[in-house]
Amino acid sequence: MAPRLFGTNGVRGIVNEGITAEFALRLGKAIGRFMSGNVAIGSDTRTSADMVKYAVASGIMASGQRVLDLGVLPTPALQYFVKTHNRVSGGVMITASHNPPEFNGIKCVDSDGTEMHRSNEERIEENFAEDSPGVPWDAVGSYEKVSGASESYVNAIVSKVDAAKIRAANLTVALDVANGAAYKTAPLLLKKLNVRAVTLNANPQGEFPGHPSEPTEGNLSDLIRLTKSLKADLGVAHDGDADRAVFVTRKGEYVSGDKSLALLASYALDDGPGTVVTPVSTSSVVEEVVRGKDGDVVYTAVGSPIVARKMMEIGAAFGGEENGGLIFPEMQYCRDAGMTLAKMLEFVAVKGPLHAQIEKLPVYYVEKAKIDCPDHLKDGLMEAMLALEPDRESDTTDGVKFIFKEGWVLMRPSGTEPIFRIYTESKDKEWAVSKCAEYVEKAKAFVTQNSL
User: Fold this and answer.
1) Pairing verdict, β 326-328 and 318-320
2) Quick one: average pLDDT of 138-145?
3) For residues 219 and 144, what is the distance between their CA atoms, to the nearest angstrom?
C-alpha cells in the first residue's frame, strides 16, 4: 500500500526536512506520470519557492510532460488558468498557504481547475511509491514560461461582478496581502474597479516580515489601525497564497470568516432560494441567515475540495469555509480571495457600510483552540473524545461534533499540521468559553498520557 502524502490541502512540510529537493523531484515524476501533455505550475512568494518549483518541474519533465511556468500568482489564478485552457491537463501550486515561512507544499489541481480529487492523489502516491526512472532521453518534456495568467484572472473577476456599481461608489480599501502571492493581483483588481487602495505588506517577501501569513485578528493589528484611521470602507487581508480573504470594518472591527460567509451567502440568495454548502466547523450564524432567506444548508467535512465538489454535485448557489475561503460557482469551484474581495465591494456598494450589515447578523460566540498532537495519536484521541459522551447527540462527518441545547463542541485533527483543533459555539459566551477550556484539557490529558 502506497504511503499517504497528501493532506487536506496538498503535501506540506518544513523545507529541507519533509520537503527536500529530492522529495519534490520524486513527487514531480509521480505527478508527471499521472498528468499528460501540458502541466501548469506556479508558486507563492516563499523563499523556498524556486527550489521546490524547479525540482517538481524537473520531475514532471522527466516523465515526458511539458511544464508551463506561470510564475508567482495566487492559487485561484493558477486554478483559473487550468480551468480555461483545454490543452492543460492539470496544475501544481507550490505553496504552504498560511503555514509559517519555514514550510512549503505541493498542491495538485485537476483539469477542471478544482483541487485534486482524493482518488487522483492516491494514483500519484502509487506512482511515488514505484519511483519510475523516467522516460528515455529523447522523450523528455520541455519547459516554458507563460505570462499573463494573473491579468486574465483579474479581468475574469471584474467580469463576474457589478463593476459599474463598484466604480460609482468611490470606495477606499486598506489592503494587506501579507507579502504573499496577491502582491500584484489585489492592487490591480482594485485599480480596475476604481477603488482607492492603501496597501500594507504588499511586497513579495516570502519570510513574511510584516506579520505571519495566517490572517487572524491577532496578526492584523496594523491593518485594523490603518482601516480605522483612514475611515476606509473596509480593510481586507489575504493569506500567503491568496485563496482566503478576511475583512475589517471602518470602525476597526475584525470580521470573522463566519460572518463574511453569512453576509455573502445571504447576498447570493437575494434572487431566490438556493443551497449553501459549508463544513461542520462553520458557525450557526450562516444557517440562521440562510434559513431566513428560505435557503438550505448542506454540511460537509472540513476542506475546500470537499465543499467545492459537493457544490458541483448539488448545484449549490454558494459555499465556503469559516476561515475566509469562499467559493463562487459563477467564477470557479475553489476558494478565491480575489473574487471574495470583489463581491464584498459589490455587497457594500449595494447594501451599505459593512459595519452596519454586520450589526444585523444574529450573535453567536465561537471559541477556537488547538493543541499539539503528533499525527500517530490523532486517531486514538478521536476515539477517546467520542467515548466521553456515548449518549450525546453527535455528528461524525468530520471529527466529532457534540450537540448540546446551549450550542455545540467540535473536535477534529488538522489535515495539514500535527495539531488537534477544538471549536465551541453558543449564544451564551460563558458556555462557549468554558466548554472549549474543558475539552482542551481533556484532549491535552490524553496526549500527555500517551506520549510518555
Assistant:
1) antiparallel
2) 97
3) 37
Give the domain range for residue 199: 152-359
Together in a domain, 341 and 396: no
On whether residue 174 sits in a domain, the answer given is: yes
388 or 177, which is more confident? 177
**Does 3 reside within a domain?**
no
**What's the pTM?**
0.93
Other CB atoms within a 10 A radius of the CB of residue 84 amount to: 14
Grid cell of 429 as nine digits: 459566551
Count of alpha carbons within 13 angstroms of residue 355, beta-carbon side? 14
The answer to whether the beta carbons of residues 264 and 344 sit under 8 Å apart is yes
pLDDT (mean) for 236-264: 97
Contact of 13 with 41, CB cutoff 8 Å: no
CATH of the domain at 412: 3.30.310.50
- The count of domains in the chain is 3
Same domain, 375 and 308: no
Task: Report pLDDT for 452.
Answer: 67
By annotation, the residues acting in catalysis are 97
Is residue 90 within 8 A of residue 35, CB to CB? The reply is yes
| Maximum separation of any 2 CA atoms in the chain, in Å | 68
pLDDT at res. 415: 72
d(CA 336, CA 347): 16
Asked whether residue 299 carries a pLDDT value surpassing 70, the answer given is yes
Residue 416 has pLDDT above 80, yes or no: no
Residue 99 in domain: yes
Instruction: Kindly give the interhelix angle for 149-159 and 185-192, rounded to the nearest 10 degrees.
Output: 40
Q: How far apart are CA 242 and CA 272, in angstroms?
A: 30
The CB-side HSE value for 302 (13 A sphere, CA atoms) comes to 23
Residue finishing a domain among 147, 168, 199:
147
CA 38 to chain centre: 25
- Is 1 a domain residue? no
Q: What distance in Å separates the CA atoms of residue 379 and residue 224, rounded to the nearest whole number? A: 39
Residue 272, domain CATH: 3.40.120.10
C-alpha cell at 100: 509559517
How far is the first Cα of the chain from the last one, in angstroms, to the nearest whole number? 30
163: enclosing H helix or E strand:
helix 163-169
Q: Tell whether the model's pLDDT for residue 389 goes beyond 90.
A: no
The four Cα atoms 186, 103, 325, 354 give a dihedral, to 10 degrees, of: -60
Grid cell of 175 as nine digits = 489592503
Strand, helix or coil at 247? Answer: strand
